[in-house]
Design brief:
CATH superfamily of the largest domain: Vaccinia Virus protein VP39
CATH class of the largest domain: Alpha Beta
Helix content: 25-40%
Structural class: alpha/beta
Distance between the termini: 74 Å
Number of domains: 2
Radius of gyration: 21 Å
Number of strands: 11
Shape: elongated
CATH topology of the largest domain: Rossmann fold
Largest sheet: 7 strands, mixed
Amino acid sequence: MTTVGELLRWAQTRLAGSDEAQTDAQTLLSHLLQKDRAWLFAWGDQPLDDKTSANYRELVHKRGQGVPVAHLTGRRDFWTLQLQVNQHTLIPRPETEHLVEKALQLGDATQPLRVLDLGTGSGAIALALASERPAWDITAVDRSEDALQMAERNAIALQLPNVHLVQGNWFEGVRGHFDMIVSNPPYVAEGDPHLSRGDLRFEPATALASGADGLDDIRLIVHEAPAHLAPGAWLLFEHAYDQAAACRRLLHAQGFTAIFSERDLAGLERVSGGNFPLDHHGN
C-alpha cells in the first residue's frame, strides 16, 4: 500500500508543470479523503488502500490534462463561503472578491437595498453580498438554466433566502428599479489565445468571451442599466486589467458620475463603476 506522503510526492512530480502543483495535489487528496490539509501533514505515513490510491491517481491525471481543480472537487471557496460549482458556471476567482468589497463599501448596510446581480453563474457575488447584508433584497439573473440550478443549490445550502433567482439574458425578466447593479460579465476578446489554454478550456465560453474587444456585454450593461437604476444608484462591474479606461469612457458617455476604477492586490484596475445621478430621473 502507498502512504499519504508518497502519494503527495508522486502527485507533485506528476503536476510539476503547474505553478500550483503542491496546492493542487493537497487539495485533491483532502477532497478524496475528506480530511483537511493539517491531517495530511500529520498523517503522512498513513497507508491508503489500493482503491483510494487509484482514485487519487485518476484525479491527478485529469488535473494534469487541465481539468480545473474546482470541477474535480465540485467546490470552490469564495469570500467566506464554500460554493458548489460545475462545468456550467464560471469558477469564482479571488479577483471578483474586490467587486464584493466595493459593493459593500458603497451600499448602506442599514437599509433594505434592492440589488441586481447580472450573470450570476454559481451565485458567488449575490450570495457573498447576501451573507454580509441580510437586509438587502438581491435579485440574481442568468440566462443558463443549469447555472441557476447551481446557484439555487448554493443558496439553499448556505441558507440565504434573500437571493431571488431569475432566468433571462441580462435585463430580460427584470422589473423595477435597483439601488445597485453588480456584474462579473464576460470580458475576454473572442479569439484570445488564453481561451484555449489551461482551466479556461473547460469553462463555458459564453461566460468568458464577449466580442472582438471583449467589451460587448459591458457596453450593453452600461447602456441599459439606467432604465433599471433608482435615483442615485450605483453600477459596478469587473473587467480585464487593460479595459478600465474604456469602461470609464462608456460610463461617462451614459451620464454616470463619481466614476471610479478599483485596483486589485497586484495593482491592476479590475473593477469600475459609477453613480447614476438624481437629475437623470428628473429629480
